[in-house]
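Case study 2.
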Amino acid sequence: MFDLISGWIATGGPWGVFALMVLENIFPPIPSELVMPLAGFQAAEGTLSLLAVLLAGIAGSVAGALPWFYAGRLVGRAQLRRLAERHGVWLTMEAGDVDATIAWFDRHGGKAVFLGRMVPGVRTLISVPAGLADMALIRFLILTALGSAVWVSLLTAAGYLLRSQYERIGAWLDPVTTAIVIGIVGLYLFRLIRMLLRRRTGSR
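Prediction:
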């Protein structure tokens, strides 16, 4: 993975950074925690423009968020409600839960999108409920760009300042990312078991 990322940046420059950040949002195993610090290191070495790196990283993050946003819009509230009625156990939600979740997102979705863009493991997922809640595209793009700008700037600045030790950033963030992913999976399993037990109890 490291050789792929470094090769793309070395060959494509800012366009390579843009492409990697698009893919990072669509295919999370490509980590922004490595892409942007490496690009920041290259900027510190003078092989890339710092401004071009920042703009490419932000633009790639926004572009990569759009497919998941439109996937949420494609499913839509009504379809998700029908899926919850038919396959609620595996989705760990019922039709009422869908309505409550989207109502919450209607109230707090702006903060969720902005802050979610700075959380590893959540950066990609947060685009889906924004689409489901039918958030205005312009609002989604602005919030995504702002949140991504903070995240991209922090990672790039860290790589720029640490220079040849930029890989330490990934070492610091990897446990955090792993903990968040484990937490998401754990929450899903907890909700799944609770719903299975509730249905088993109700069927008796």
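The chain has eight helices and no strands.
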